[in-house]
Amino acid sequence: MKIMIKLSLNDRKISLDIWTPYFYIIRDLFFDGGWDAFMCIVKDNRLMEEQIETCKKIESLYPEIKAELFYPTTPLEIRDFLNQYRVQPRDMKGLCSLDVLYDIANEALLDEDYELTLEYSELILDIDDESAYAYDLKGTVLYDQGKTKKSIEYLEKAVELDSTLVEALSTLGQAYFNVHEYEKASAIWNQMIENNPDDVLAYFTLVDSYIHQKKYHDAISALKKLVRRFPEHLMGKINLATLLQMVGKREEAEKYEKEIENTQPMNPTEMEIWARINLQKEKYEVVEKGIKEFMNKQGGPEFLKLWLVVPYIKNGKKEDAKQIVEEFKDSNILFNYGKHEIFDPFLEESEIRECELPC
User: Fold this and answer.
1) Residue 264 DSSP class
2) CA of residue 261 relative to chain centroid, distance
3) Burial of 10 (0-12, 13-18, 19+ CB in 10 A)
4) What pLDDT, on a 0 to 100 scale, did the predictor assign at position 320?
5) 210 closest CA partner among 197, 222, 195
6) Is residue 240 a contact partner of residue 223, using CB atoms and an 8 Å limit?
7) What is the mean pLDDT of residues 164-180?
8) Sign of the alpha-carbon torsion through 210, 211, 216, 220
9) Tell me, what's the pLDDT at 55?
10) What's phi and psi for 233, nearest 5 deg?
11) Mean pLDDT, all residues of the chain
């Protein structure tokens, strides 16, 4: 092995080679910074023992030497190190921690560096072929790359190994949904809700999968479960009321609509829901007053002004309505949001034309 540096420390000669810095890296990546834990994989490997002893001596004299000095590294370099010292990755299973590799791989995934993520996941699996998180990483990369059917194989394996892995469950549920396996998607999201009853998104994705199966009563049951757990959740209530109307349970639907009418909206999304229900009940003055008070108190957002157009027109304030339309005339929101969500559902064609609203 080629020597690159020779040190004289307290009359002791210490030889360093190109791999010496890597012992600091491997120690911190796999052994929580502990040399004794590192020694567990040495197995009478004299060269490794000598290197570790050298590193310990250097560190005792120069404690400022840390692995960070030698970063970054790559899975390929880690493999080269293990090959250099004839260490099989599988022999490290149970003797090292993979938490740091998980974190690095996850950062690569968040940065959409899929190649690096896959390299780390393969390295982790070579060390521990039962790593649920590594299968999750591979499955998620394939899913993000649009290889949905292939991603399901790895995500199913991840969930099989760890049924509480939220990220794998969530991605697997969405993957099933995207390939139209709605029953399997429903089972996944039911499991997620069982694991964490506060997972609001899981309720809505579950409802969506039931609707695709035309299981409207199951969808209603899921929304009722959500509303019982979150009594103030207006999005849950509006969806529940809509489904109840669809299956002919108008009286029950009106109960939830009434609850929405009497709610004090706390954010713009809730205000939209509240305004929609009240416009359906033709409570134009209530909507006008509520929108204005909310915007004065919150200082916006500006798009909520579009909800004033309908009550203005219905109450004969057409010039006020036209002024709002003029404010948004150069914005896509006037057509994409205002027309489809507000004007078309609540105004007559003659009113739309008269006030020069987008047709």
Assistant:
1) -
2) 32
3) exposed
4) 93
5) 222
6) yes
7) 95
8) positive
9) 80
10) -80, 100
11) 90
